[in-house]
């Protein structure tokens, strides 16, 4: 799958809710400042997998809505809504939507149920490859459609990897034995509002060659955002050569804890940012340890912190070169605050 850059959207998941390690394992307060890491890195990006996972179910509802004439816009409304669903994840990948036609580059030899009409399609491209999503509608019986795809997708060059048929879902997963970079699935659902069936085709090609280069979008620094209510005042937003710009905020309450996520950009280096927070927290007597990389391709630097033995506040700060503009550093700050600590403290 392609990935999503958090430059101006959602930061990574909240700080872990697991209990922090014993104080004896913590880094001593006199630990040396962070040394600069190699250049040419970027905070790992991610495509909103959770979004893609629920798209088939949402699409089924939208096609039912369109088939029933809901809203008066029909397929156009469905296309607009699904397009918004994809973009609501804040993805900076190249997302193109097409109403009533297949996306460019969609495999011409991929079987298509006879007479099926394209409602909307999408092409999501990144440096890792291309993901195609096509929504068809048909007046045929869903079992006939499923049988068609089971047969056609088990003929060369395709191969059926598995299938499911139940009251809830009918789907076929397929691949190309001669190309390990290709896979996909077909989901078929019936409409309760008419005689239309929804056919959702997902096709992934992670071949690095043959794709048009993605032209980088110019980075635009928008006005800073306000911090969420109750954000702890003793966790400052870094300010260096000039005031940092907050680009994304999120908070969630649950289980006696409030989780905050703040993303901001600064013109100071990632090393400057991390050393600032290390010093600030150690002055307060907090426990600070080096953070772990998010993946083998992650070259960001980070620290984990907690407010000493009380353990009523803990979090992580991660900083790296901005993926869209190397003149900035992107910082993602995640904090979990216990309700017993008091809001804003």
Secondary structure layout plus pairing:
Elements: H1 49-67, H2 75-87, E1 94-99, E2 117-126, E3 129-138, H3 142-152, E4 159-165, E5 170-176, E6 179-190, E7 197-205, E8 245-254, E9 257-266, H4 270-283, E10 287-290, E11 301-306, E12 313-321, E13 329-338
Antiparallel strand pairs: 1-2, 2-3, 3-7, 4-5, 5-6, 6-7, 8-9, 9-13, 10-11, 11-12, 12-13
Order of helices and strands: HHEEEHEEEEEEHEEEE
Oligomer: single chain
Number of E strands: 13
Total helical elements? 4
Strand order of the largest sheet: 1-2-3-7-6-5-4
- Which stretches of 5+ consecutive residues score pLDDT under 50? 1-31, 35-55, 64-76, 88-92, 209-214
Kindly estimate the percentage of residues that lie in beta strands according to DSSP. Answer: 25-35%
Shape: elongated
């Amino acid at each position: 799958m392609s990935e999503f850059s958090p430059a101006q959207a959602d930061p990574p998941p909240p700080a872990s809710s697991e209990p922090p390690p014993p104080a004896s394992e913590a880094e001593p307060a006199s630990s040396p400042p962070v040394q600069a890491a190699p250049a040419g890195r970027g905070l790992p990006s991610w495509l909103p997998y959770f979004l893609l996972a629920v798209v088939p179910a949402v699409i089924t509802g939208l096609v039912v809505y369109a088939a029933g004439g809901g809203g008066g816009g029909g397929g156009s409304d469905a296309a607009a809504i699904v397009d918004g669903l994809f973009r609501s994840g804040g993805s900076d990948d190249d997302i193109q939507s097409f109403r009533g036609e297949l996306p460019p580059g969609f495999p011409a030899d991929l079987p298509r149920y006879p007479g099926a009409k394209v409602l909307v399609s999408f092409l999501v491209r990144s440096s890792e490859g291309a993901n195609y999503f096509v929504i068809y509608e048909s007046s045929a019986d869903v079992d006939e459609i499923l049988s068609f795809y089971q047969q056609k997708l088990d003929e060369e060059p395709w191969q059926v990897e598995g299938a499911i048929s139940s009251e809830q879902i009918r789907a076929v997963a397929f691949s190309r034995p001669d190309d390990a970079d290709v896979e996909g699935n077909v989901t078929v659902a019936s409409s309760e509002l008419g005689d239309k069936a929804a056919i959702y085709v997902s096709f992934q090609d992670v071949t690095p060659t043959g794709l048009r280069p993605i032209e980088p979008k110019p980075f635009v620094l928008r006005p800073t955002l306000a911090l969420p209510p109750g954000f702890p005042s003793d966790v400052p937003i870094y300010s260096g050569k000039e005031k940092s710009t907050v680009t994304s905020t999120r908070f969630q309450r649950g289980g006696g804890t409030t989780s905050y996520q703040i993303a901001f950009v600064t013109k100071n280096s990632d090393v400057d940012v991390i050393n600032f927070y290390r010093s600030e927290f150690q002055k307060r007597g907090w426990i600070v340890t080096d953070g772990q990389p998010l993946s083998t391709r992650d070259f960001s630097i980070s620290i984990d912190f907690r407010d000493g033995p009380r353990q009523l506040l803990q979090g992580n700060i991660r900083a790296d070169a901005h993926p869209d503009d190397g003149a900035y550093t992107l910082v993602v700050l995640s904090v979990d605050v216990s309700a017993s600590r008091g809001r804003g403290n």
